[in-house]
Write a structure and sequence with these properties.
The protein is α+β, with helices and mostly antiparallel strands. The protein folds into 2 domains: about 60 residues, 2,3-Dihydroxybiphenyl 1,2-Dioxygenase, domain 1, CATH 3.10.180.10; about 90 residues, 2,3-Dihydroxybiphenyl 1,2-Dioxygenase, domain 1. It is built from 4 helices and 10 strands; from the N terminus they run E-H-E-E-E-E-H-H-E-E-E-E-E-H. A hairpin with a 5-residue loop joins strand 8 and strand 9. The radius of gyration is 17 Å and the shape is globular. The chain starts with 7 loop residues before the first strand and ends with a helix.
Length: about 150
C-alpha cells in the first residue's frame, strides 16, 4: 500500500548479548528477548506509543550478512551525535568519500547524516530531514557546504 509506514526492521548479529548491550547503549528500550529463538526486539522512538521496532537476530557467523538502516532524528539531535557516540566509544564512519567531522548531506532528499557501525559491522545512520528544497545536482556534501548554498 502506498501510505503504509515501516513498523519494524531487522538486523543480524553473531553475538546477541553484545548486540543487546550496544543497542541499549544507544538508548533503545528492550521490548522483548526470546532466548530460545536468539532474538531481541527494541522499541524505536517513543516506546509508550509502540509504533516502531527493531529486531536483532543471532545467526551463525557464516550466515551473517551486514545490513543498513537509519534512525530519524531532528537537526538539533543530529548535531549532538558525535559527542553521544564518542562518550560510548563508538566511532563515526567516513561516508561517500567525506570525513566524519560533520554531517554529510544527501542533497536530493535533502537530509543530513552521520554514519557508524554496530559491533557486527551493520551500517547505522542518524538522519535528519532538512527544510530546504532538494538540490540533487549537489550530490553529497558536508552540512557546512550545504548551508553556504542558502546564504
Amino acid at each position: 500500500m502506498k501510505n503504509a509506514e515501516l513498523y519494524e526492521t531487522h538486523v543480524k548479529t553473531v553475538n546477541l548479548e553484545s548486540a543487546v548491550a550496544f543497542y541499549k547503549s544507544l538508548g533503545l528500550e528492550l521490548a522483548y528477548l526470546l532466548e530460545e529463538r536468539r532474538v531481541a526486539f527494541f522499541y524505536l522512538g517513543d516506546s509508550e506509543k509502540k509504533q516502531q521496532m527493531l529486531g536483532v537476530w543471532e545467526v551463525k557467523e557464516h550466515e551473517f550478512v551486514p545490513s543498513h538502516f537509519a534512525f530519524k532524528v531532528t537537526v538539533e539531535q543530529l548535531r549532538s551525535v558525535p559527542q553521544l557516540l564518542e562518550a560510548k566509544g563508538i566511532a563515526l564512519s567516513p561516508s561517500f568519500g567525506l570525513h566524519a567531522s560533520e554531517p554529510v548531506v544527501h542533497a536530493w532528499m535533502p537530509a543530513a547524516c552521520y554514519y557508524f557501525s554496530d559491533p557486527d559491522g551493520n551500517s547505522l545512520e542518524y538522519l535528519a530531514l532538512l527544510d530546504q528544497e532538494p538540490k540533487p545536482e549537489l550530490g553529497v556534501l558536508h552540512l557546512s557546504e550545504w548551508e553556504k548554498t542558502f546564504q
